[in-house]
Amino acid sequence: MSRREELAERLGHVQSKISRSDVTLIVVTKTYPASDVQILHELGVRNFGENRSEEGAEKSAIVGATWHFQGGIQSRKLRDIALWADVIHSLDNSGHISKLESATQKSMDVFLQLSLDGDPSRGGVIESELAVLADQVLATANLKLLGLMCVPPVDADPRKAFIEISQIHRRFISRYPGASSLSAGMSGDYEIAMDCGATHIRVGSSILGPRAPHE
Questions:
Q1: What percent of the chain lies above the pLDDT cut of 70?
Q2: How far is CA 128 from CA 111, 114, 116, 124, 178, in A?
Q3: Low-confidence ranges of the chain (pLDDT < 50)
Q4: If we measure between CA atoms, which residue out of 134, 215, 151, 149 comes closest to residue 189?
Q5: Residue 170, Cβ neighbours under 10 Å: how many?
């Protein structure tokens, strides 16, 4: 089986699981070559995700698409990220919002990263801290608040976690009705995430195959 046939088969399998028209599939291509991105683009994929700015810059220069940055943000990398990313999923810091606003003259879509357990090592803020960041984004000229992004704690029951995320998101929408998107779910749990209302799923290995053990 050729690489194109393999990717087409895996992509088709994931697409067959998506039953709602409002779900955006983001294919996460970190550690995979640009040639895979080109094949997937030829197969109709228009949204790609990267966790590393260097890879995103390289691949976005080769393949024109909507590019999503979803990794942990380093302040010194924000200007670089703003050059290639169309959407950022992991804003969780007031200083980063200010720096991003000053770094870009283009319109950029952003998600605020929610943390269910408040673990600072995994990024995100708890529910009570979301409003301050949301208000700051809404006060900018170039940033558009799409909604929330969340990665459940590693040891959490996926369905219970996504139900909690969905409940928080509904409360958030009641205050910020324009922030109706929910970025949640990856290769191992995207079906559950969609059941619980996710509008953006970030899928990598289920389409591209297993990563090398060291990645």
A1: 98
A2: 16, 10, 11, 12, 19
A3: 213-215
A4: 151
A5: 11
Residue matched to tokens 């170039």: 142
Kindly state the percentage of the chain with pLDDT values over 90.
94
Token digits for 196?
């619980």
Token reading at 188: 């191992």
Q: What is the pTM of this model?
A: 0.96
The answer to whether 91 and 111 are in contact (CB under 8 A) is yes
Reported residue count of the chain is 215
Give the tens place of pLDDT for each residue, 171-180: 999 999 999 9
Torsion of CA 157, 151, 207, 16, to 10 degrees: 60
| Burial grade of 31 (CB within 10 A; 0-12, 13-18, 19 or more) | middle
The 3-class secondary structure across the chain, one letter per residue, is CCHHHHHHHHHHHHHHCCCCCCCEEEEECCCCCHHHHHHHHHCCCCEEEECCHHHHHHHHHHCCCEEEECCCCCHHHHHHHHHHCCEEEEECCHHHHHHHHHHCCCCEEEEEEECCCCCHHHCCECHHHHHHHHHHHHCCCCEEEEEEEECCCCCCCHHHHHHHHHHHHHHHHHHCCCCCEEECCCCCCHHHHHHCCCCEEEECHHHHCCCCCCC
Query: Kind of pairing, strands 108-114 and 87-91?
Result: parallel
Domains in the chain (CATH in brackets) are 3-208 (3.20.20.10)
